[in-house]
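for the recovery benchmark. tokens below, seq after
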């Protein structure tokens, strides 16, 4: 069966066969069984290295850490783009932004490629989204297959709601629909700016601070730290205070998320529900003088946690191989026994969850930034087996950064050079190759174009 885009569609024509076979509704088992339900949880702005099971030393995430003890934890995960709406679209569709067409927040989609929620809905699951910020409200995501999008603002004109609201709605929703097949997305926004954790949690993480900064930091103030003068005014203690408040937001999120994870067991859903926890992007706190996300492709910004728990899974597993959030869609298709979708660039992670090795790709475009209103600006991160490079184009010039594949030096690493002074370095020619592919994709992509992109190496 060949599905085009729904009305208004123009960008991607993807061959997809919707074959709802293999749905199993068996009891909990000692070995993983095929799932009936999907619970996909996105934690907005959670950088991987502030999660306990990813090595963070502070007690920010006891609930996620407990979950990880019997889940598969992917150690090295890159998001497709450190911007909320495009990154979520990648998680749901398996397409990078240039191919799914959503390249900025606030962009009302023109077309809807097949998403995991649409396909599971067609196969009989009840679908829903419970979100906590306007950036992913119904205007921007409903067409991806959600029969309802709940953004519970209680009548107030607020841009975001707390994780408490998401959890309350999630617990009620799961209680109502526990006896149906379902595919539910929960979106938590607490770690995103502004940093204004509840008082008790703030006190727990900021005890000992003697500086002048308040216990709540506005978005404008945080983004304003990208002004060198504003950043220079911060003491070391102030900088730590910013991190403390972020950690307090993460801990608050984790506490509320923990109640949902506990409910999955309490409602008897553990043996039938596949649970995914992933972040859309991370967050920088002054690394290389950058604060926030979106603009720079630094490791704290593009490295995210990814954990998967299959029904009945009893043992934890760690996958060290580098993977991407766009690998999730082909994985979900395999786990739910849906037909693979032609043209998806990602790899299924199902084998890795079974303990099979993932062969490193020779080269991959793993992340990019995009500014549709500022075409003179661009950014790419390219991984190779042995090293990785980052490219930025700004109106005042281009810069290239080379780092090592093992993480030493980082993606914005020590080796730095500018266009015209690149010798035989591999990165500039790779950048041109991928920029051309991005332009081709953005111009509209037919199945034949997808074959071309695959031949170019843009699509694996
Ligand atoms: Zn986000």
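predicted aa per position
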């Amino acid at each position: 069966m060949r599905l085009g885009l729904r009305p208004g569609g123009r960008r991607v024509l993807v061959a997809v066969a919707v074959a709802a076979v293999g749905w199993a509704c068996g009891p909990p088992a000692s070995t993983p069984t095929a799932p009936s339900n999907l619970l996909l949880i996105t934690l907005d702005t959670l950088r991987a290295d502030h999660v306990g099971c990813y090595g963070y030393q502070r007690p920010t995430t006891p609930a996620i850490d407990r979950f990880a003890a019997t889940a598969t934890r992917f150690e090295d995960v890159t998001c497709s783009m450190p911007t909320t709406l495009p990154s979520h679209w990648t998680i749901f569709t398996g397409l990078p932004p240039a191919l799914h067409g959503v390249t900025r927040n606030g962009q009302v989609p023109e077309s809807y490629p097949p998403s995991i929620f649409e396909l599971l809905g067609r196969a009989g699951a009840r679908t829903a989204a419970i979100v906590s910020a306007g950036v992913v409200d119904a205007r921007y995501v409903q067409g991806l297959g959600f029969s309802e999008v709940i953004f519970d603002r209680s009548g107030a004109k607020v841009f975001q709601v707390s994780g408490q609201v998401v959890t309350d709605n999630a617990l009620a929703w799961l209680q109502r629909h526990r006896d149906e097949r379902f595919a539910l997305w929960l979106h938590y926004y607490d770690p995103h700016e502004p940093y204004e954790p509840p008082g008790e949690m703030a006190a727990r993480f900021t005890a000992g601070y003697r500086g002048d900064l308040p216990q709540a930091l506005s978005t404008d103030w945080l983004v304003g730290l990208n002004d060198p003068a504003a950043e220079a005014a911060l003491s070391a203690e102030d900088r730590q205070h910013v991190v403390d408040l972020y950690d307090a937001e993460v801990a608050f999120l984790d506490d509320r998320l923990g109640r949902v994870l506990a409910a999955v067991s309490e409602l008897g859903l553990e043996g039938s529900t596949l649970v995914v926890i992933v972040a859309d992007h991370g967050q920088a706190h002054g690394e290389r003088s950058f604060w926030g996300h979106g603009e720079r492709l630094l490791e704290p910004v593009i490295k995210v946690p990814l954990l998967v728990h299959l029904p009945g899974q009893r043992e934890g597993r760690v996958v060290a191989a580098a993977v991407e959030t766009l690998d999730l869609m082909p994985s979900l298709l395999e786990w739910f026994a849906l037909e693979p979708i032609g043209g998806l660039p990602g790899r299924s992670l199902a084998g890795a969850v079974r303990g099979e090795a993932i062969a490193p790709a020779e080269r991959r475009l793993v992340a990019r930034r995009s500014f549709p209103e500022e075409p003179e600006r661009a950014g790419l991160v390219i991984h190779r087996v042995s090293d990785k490079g980052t490219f930025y184009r700004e109106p005042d010039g281009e810069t290239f950064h080379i780092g090592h594949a093992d993480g030493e030096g980082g993606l914005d690493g020590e080796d730095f050079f500018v266009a015209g002074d690149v010798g035989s370095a591999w990165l500039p020619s790779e950048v041109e190759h991928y920029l051309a592919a991005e332009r081709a994709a953005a111009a509209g992509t037919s199945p034949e174009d997808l074959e071309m992109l695959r031949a170019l190496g843009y699509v694996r």
